[in-house]
Amino acid sequence: MTRAIQPQIDSFLKGFHDFIPPALVQLFDEYELELMLSGLPEIDVNDWMYNTEYNSGLTKECCVVQWFWEIAKDFSQEEKVLLLQFVTGSSRVPHGGFAHLSGGSGIQRFNISPVRYVPNLLPTASTCINLLKLPEYKTKEELRDRLLVALQCGSQGYALA
Q: Mind listing the pLDDT tens digit for each residue in 88-106?
């Protein structure tokens, strides 16, 4: 696919590198670069909640789900962006809000699925289908702690965390 538009890509990169040298661009991963170029978006957690589906018997009334949304609302804007990036692969809310979130095959609402509790288990995500696999933590504090670890390590992988 990129071969067909390689001349356009080359022209874009030439102009881009006139302003930002390649050596500086290489200091950042794709997520950091996106945030530097686009800035922090506003994330409406209420809209996100409204446009979420729950799987495998999990409901919005479950403690772990309520704790998750309370934590998300309490997050700083930067942490909300990291959370969005962790679960969807993008740091931006789509135009029109979370109802227009897309996945690998078109519009794909955000989903939360439960995972059996194991101490120190981190949440995981399948970004192509906007799925958060959320362990059924025993306390809100443990959920917050494990979620923050996942967000900080998620872009590098955390199999040994």
A: 988 888 888 999 998 878 8
